[in-house]
Amino acid sequence: MEQLFSTIEVIANPIAVLMIALGAFYFVIGGANEAYRKKGKGLVVYAVVGYLLATVAFPMLYNIVSSLMLASLA
């Protein structure tokens, strides 16, 4: 189970960085085009929220599952 969460974190880090970079690229290149600026801002926001969920929710889920497994053994 720990290996699953560490693997998810290893995968989430570069994906978040790439999505933030792509969003920043759209935002900067967009210039006067509001559609590109909106798309870039959305990519950055969703990448940050997704990364926070991956780094906060998975350890919480791990603690819950671990405590349920320990309770079933007792």
Describe this entry's structure for a reader.
The chain has helices spanning 2-30, 34-73. By secondary structure, it is mainly alpha-helical. The protein is elongated.
Keywords:
elongated, 0% strand, mainly alpha, 74 residues, 93% helix
Summarize the structure.
This protein has 74 residues and is mainly α.
Radius of gyration: 18 Å
Name the shape in a single word.
elongated
Please report the number of helical segments: 2
Q: Which regions contain 5 or more consecutive residues with pLDDT less than 50?
A: none
Strand content range: under 5%
- Give the termini separation: 20 Å
Instruction: List SSEs in N-to-C order.
Output: HH
Q: Which whole number gives the mean pLDDT? A: 87
Describe the sheet with the most strands: none
Structural class: mainly alpha
Estimated helix fraction: over 70%
Number of strands: 0
Set down the secondary structure blueprint:
Elements: H1 2-30, H2 34-73
Helix pairs in contact: 1-2
